[in-house]
Amino acid sequence: MKVFLVAAALLAAPLIAPAIAPVAPPAALALEPDEILKDPALEARAREISKELRCLVCQNQSIDDSDATLARDLRILVRDRLKAGDTDAEAVDFIVERYGDFVLLRPPFKNSTLILWIGPGVIFLIGIIGVTLWHRRRRDAVAAPVAPLSADERARVDALLAEKPGK
Questions:
Q1: In whole angstroms, what is the distance from residue 71 CA to residue 58 CA?
Q2: What radius of gyration do the chain's Cα atoms show?
Q3: Listed residue (25, 50, 23) closest to 36, CA to CA
Q4: 124-161: per-residue pLDDT in tens?
Q5: Is the CA virtual torsion 126, 127, 128, 129 positive or negative?
Q6: What mean pLDDT is predicted for residues 58-79?
Q7: Per-domain residue ranges for the chain?
Q8: DSSP code, position 56
Q9: CA dist 13 → 4, 24, 76 (Å)
Q10: For residue 48, what pLDDT is reported?
């Protein structure tokens, strides 16, 4: 009976857990209260831009998510540009002029970023070609016919097998 109750509890746990688990708060952003603009429309634009810009310290986070001091400076700079009347594109272009295309989480497809876009595919193809060549060579080596032993070789093998171990 105990085994049945334990099994029933284990089976029911995934169904019951969401109902009794506390609701998790939304993911905390690095945005500090003094950075938030009073105009909600400008703030929304700033947040959208901040989600597209890379933190140059963290490198795999947007400036919206990063706690780094440089990310904070970039968030403030974006908000200052928007308050000055820049469009979203002008604000992003200003940041890109200062920090280069690397600051964009999705860099544009152009000559200077070509390696970023094509490099992974080229490396993948080189890997596939290498594995294919290795597999073919291995298959050909295994499939090569083995020549039968000559009479002298056969006699030597028989003599070695006839010897007693330890002599």
A1: 9
A2: 33
A3: 50
A4: 999 999 999 999 988 877 766 778 889 999 999 999 99
A5: positive
A6: 90
A7: 33-108, 112-162
A8: T
A9: 14, 19, 46
A10: 94
CB 108 within 8 A of CB 66: no
Cβ(55)–Cβ(61) below 8 Å: yes
pLDDT in tens, 13-25: 555 555 554 444 4
Domain 33-108 listed as CATH 1.10.8.640: yes
Q: Which secondary-structure segment (H or E) carries 91?
A: helix 88-99
Q: Six-digit token pair at 129?
A: 């070609």
Cα–Cα distance between 75 and 52 in angstroms, integer? Answer: 11
Cut 0.70: pTM above it: no
Cα gap 66→56, rounded to integer Å: 10
Among candidate residues 59, 155, 158, the one with its CA nearest the CA of residue 103: 59
Tokens 């780094």 correspond to: 68
